[in-house]
Amino acid sequence: MDHEELRKFLFRFSNPLEIAPKSNFLLSFSPSGMNAAVRAVVRMGIYVGAKVYFIHEGYQGMVDGGDNIEEATWESVSSMLQIGGTVIGSARCKEFRTHEGRLKAALNLVQHGITNLCVIGGDGSLTGANLFREEWSGLLTELVEQGAIEEESVQKYSALHIVGMVGSIDNDFCGTDMTIGTDSALHRIIEVVDAIMTTAQSHQRTFVLEVMGRHCGYLALVSALACGADWVLIPEMPPEDGWEDKMCQKLFATRSRGTRLNIIIVAEGAIDRHGKPITSSLVKDLVVKNLGFDTRVTILGHVQRGGTPSAFDRILASRMGVEAVLALLETTANTPACVVSLSGNQSVRLPLMECVQMTQAVQKAMDEKRFEDAVKLRGRSFQNNLRTYKLLAHRKPESDLPSNFNVAVLNVGAPAAGMNAAVRSAVRVGISQGHKMFAVSDGFEGFSKGQIKEVKWSDVGGWTGQGGSLLGTKRTLPAKYVEKIAEQMKKHNINALLVVGGFEALLSLLELQTARGRYDEFCVPMVMVPATVSNNVPGSDLSIGADTALNAITSTCDRIKQSASGTKRRVFIIETMGGYCGYLASVGGLASGADAVYIYEEPFDIRDLQANVEHLTEKMKTSIQRGLVLRNENSNDNYTTDFIYQLYSEEGKGVFDCRKNVLGHMQQGGAPSPFDRNFGTKISAKAMQWITNKLQETFRQGRVFANTEDTCCLLGMRRRALVFQPVVQLKDETDFVHRIPKEQWWLKLRPLMKILAKYKTSYDVSDYGILEHVVGSRPKELDAAVAM
Fold it and tell me: What residues bind substrate, as annotated (predicted)?
């Protein structure tokens, strides 16, 4: 069992119903994001009437007991969201692997009334906890025989219940799309890759980057997708014999087309088909020997484990922490150990040992050189990442690509980070499927002016990490230029359209579908991929660009709060973008630990404002030194950011002072996050595959003719699946006046944010409590999980 780098804390439920009291204990180790899980479990535990404890120094603390067990309070987990690693220490513990060590741990748990464990770790940690659970009754019997506990304690603490959360930067645990810490590790990798690419381009160098992943190639594979690496080597899918020559040929061909750099990413556990390790130094020597390229090696090492947690990891850990508490509340004597997982955009519970056995089956398949099976066992998300990488990285010879259809791609609406990754993906997938790809500049306005040109494979090289919109984008809708656009469609023989954009893109497709009755040129397959920082597109839970904006908000809030360090008590009023959609404010508030968030979707009046001020004033008097209030830009016409700032300043006199900040367009800028790069890449690839299928279906008598509803669609992420939805069917789901969906999934996160800010509120558990199974738990249409 691998119990490396574990950290722990426990909490004890009170018993308002006068049932035998439950106590709970949480083990965790230290990838970024774990502190958010600690904070969520502690505060949710207190919210349900719990007495909370920390256990310092991991399993060692549980075995040693004594001062390692410390009561936690609401305030003890304040100001820890932005801190990486673990604030309560971690340590290896060989003693816990022995029966005697577990006997000592059982005694300490019984002395504290602990009968429930919440374990955060990898498969080794979870397996160890499950073994402890299985031995529990026997351990108590031994303690009675030794006279360490009374007979009545065996009856009182007869069962030990376990809920797991997966924390690992490798994302190597089967049953979840994403483990806590993985996204933060990808941020560290991509930050290094982006920095290296500038120097590599300047000096025409090849860089070999070694990333973590002794037994799992997830980090290597996804970072290769995110930066457009020329070659990637992972343990699950070793290269075929002769890979050395193929790799060098690929690098030479890339340089011959004018590219000034090459990036090769190697997982630390990469092997060849015969089990021989492929090291970064070996790859470097191959490139230097065969090509003579100036080649450097960068080994990222433990930098991937540290740093500030990403917004995704903070939100994931907070949601998982709350779900773990709910799971423990519902345990019975017959409840099997479960693990809280992420499927698409939904929290699910899976049997712990099913997940562990599936994870161990992956390693067994690799040991037996059944590599195809290993990839399948990793799950659909991993398979899709690998399939998409191969599709985008390895160009087919021109002779293998029959001249087929003409497909145009354009951006519509405001810029969003990740748009360029989506366009690159569409162009390369389209070319690989035999289409001619055309890029339209400046949206539909540029379309009407004939700003259309064919793009080749190499034209979109290096686009993945670029922010903004390299094609250019405008909010102009096509109705104004519909006749001229039809002329350009006919002139360039455009057979399909892929539109990457926000709410304007949805309106555009609705207008073009209406125009089909007058212009046959628009009777072609059309699909929209949502891309907007506001995340306000109906039909999709998430949009390209929203994650990058959330990270900008979260990092800015971290800095703003830090600016008050050492000063008197201070409250910051922050205004975010989003139009009438409160996604950025609400989810950004959850990720940054806001005390209040004001949005249009949840109306508020002066009484609510006054109650928030009083609540924050009370907290300032007793505990916290810094407060954070977020306001969506269009949340209320009268209660403006200035009004709220002045109200808090006046009512907080003598207790705290106020500062305000309007974040503005910084939320739209910057390099795209790893999530947005990969989400944009995969969703756009799927959209192009849909276009190819529709072109084949609608090609009749020498022409394409598509005029049915299902040939004009939006591709969106709905809970746990990527779904194509006819745009006309989205009309009933849309508030066109305020440009938002009528129902928005993230509103269910707002009570969670309020609970963690110490408000008394109800929490909707209608989506919780279902224990699924690993095999067959995913819907068939989930070809590209939103979690990378």
Answer: 168-170, 205, 212-214, 268, 296, 302-305
Written as one string, the DSSP assignment of 93-105 is: -SGGGSHHHHHHH
* Token pair listed for 196: 């290296």
- Give the pLDDT band (50/70/90) at residue 15: very low
304 is in an annotated binding site: yes
Partners of 163 in the β-ladder: 118, 338
Ramachandran bin of 369, using left for φ above 0, alpha for ψ from -120 to 50, beta for the remaining angles = left
Report the alpha-carbon distance of residue 679 to residue 543 in Å, rounded.
Answer: 9
Kindly report the number of other CB atoms within 10 A of residue 604's CB atom: 16
> What per-residue confidence (pLDDT) applies to 27?
55
Cα 430–471–525 angle (5° rounding)?
A: 40
Dihedral, CA of residue 368, residue 373, residue 379 and residue 384, to nearest 10:
120
Looking at residues 362-391, what average pLDDT do you find? Answer: 91
Indicate whether 778 pLDDT > 80: no
Would the CA dihedral through 575, 576, 580, 582 be positive or negative?
negative
Strands (E), 589-727: 596-598, 626-632, 657-662, 699-700, 703-704, 712-718, 721-726
Of 164, 157, 70, the C-alpha closest to 122 is: 164
Task: Give the residues across from 344 on adjacent strands.
Answer: none
pLDDT per position as a tens digit, 749-776: 999 999 999 988 877 665 555 677 765 4
Distance CA(548)–CA(675), nearest Å, equals 8
Question: Could you read off the pLDDT of 589-614 as tens digits, one per residue?
Answer: 999 999 999 999 999 999 999 999 99
296 annotated as belonging to a binding site for a ligand: yes
- Provide the pairing of β-strand 295-299 with 23-29: unpaired
Give yes or no: 170 in active site: yes
Mean per-residue pLDDT of the chain? 88
Longest CA span, the chain: 91
Q: Which residue has the tokens 């304007």?
A: 504
Selecting among 2, 64, 67, 170, the annotated active-site residue is 170
pLDDT the model gives residue 10? 43
- The answer to whether 511 is a known ligand-binding residue is no
Spatial contact of 737 and 744, defined as CB atoms under 8 Å apart: no
CB atoms within 10 A of CB 276: 10
* Contact residues for 723 (Cβ-Cβ < 8 A; gap 6+): 539, 715, 716, 717, 781
504 is in an annotated binding site: no
This prediction has a pTM of: 0.92
φ/ψ of 544, rounded to 5, equals -60, 135
pLDDT tens for 109-136 read: 899 888 888 888 777 778 888 898 999 9
Residue 579 known to bind ligand:
yes
Pairing of strands 206-211, 295-299: parallel
Distance of CA 594 to the CA centre of its chain: 20
- Contact partners, residue 671, CB within 8 Å, separation at least 6: 190, 194, 417, 465, 466, 467, 548
Strand 295-299's sheet: what is its strand order? 231-233, 262-267, 206-211, 295-299
